[in-house]
Amino acid sequence: MPVARLKVVIDTDPGLDDAVAILFALQSGLFDIAGITTVAGNLGIGVTTRNAGRLLAFAGRGDIPVVEGAERPLFRSAIQTADIHGGDGMGWVDLPEPAVPPDVDAVAWLADLLMREEPHSVAILALGPLTNLAKLQTDHPDAAHRVGLIVAMGGAVNEPGNMGPRAEFNFQADPHAAGIMFAAGLPMIVIPLDVTRKVRATRDWCARLAAGSPVAAKAGEVIEAYFQSTQGRESRPLHDPCVMLFAARPDLFAVETMRLAIDTEDGPDAGALFPGEGAEVAVAMRVNAEAALELLAKGLGA
Ligand code: BDR
Ligand code: CA
Question: Which of 49, 130, 179, 204 is 20 to 30 A (C-alpha) from 170?
């Protein structure tokens, strides 16, 4: 009997590692993708929305809707990372233009979808700041409580941050949104830097992608652009793909439940986590990195 695929929405700010995650979701056939909602994060909302459409056009999946979401964090002003992701958010990798214009109002679209589908049958794979999801929780709590699972990349528990001393980008970009989601009591797994820094692309691994399917080769080009923006590194962490890998194979990860609070002050360590304080949150703290990389390569078609 065929196994039902997990129905998902990808909430994202592409972004190079977002792109690898989306290409994996498209190529692997492991997910039934109901739509891609976009959020301002790595770059502004116009850029991230266009990139979601470009990735779908490349994969010939213009049938999957792209729905534009929050153009700024809840209370802070936006941070942009064109230095890492390129001014186009895709490291200037060649991609077609979107085949279909985006829809608008990701939060209303998500609420409608969750009210329409069977309760707890849709997972949200969150690859960017949690602004859209916090608005969903605040403005449409009944719909939010019908979500099956949220898997969200963000934060650093025992690891140094990649923005402040202990602050990671997605949680620093919108710490208030992350705080709302911690307190929401929804089924949610956080995937922090403690895990994502273990799942790394080397040059050899990229060569394997280059020799694989057209989608794998495009993912290889995207990771190559990621190497270009961070010279001198032997490998690059695959942050956002870990969300997809968790959704597909949670057994590859070890999850711990811990209390987490978040720094929402406007300082350099905004978004830093305070373990031991705040709401109970499930956090993936360890990963079988070798098996995760193998799944990622195979799913991309390499
Ligand atoms: C996260 O921040 C973004 O730059 C990446 O796309 C990823 O979602 C890693 O800290
Ligand atoms: Ca991202």
Answer: 204
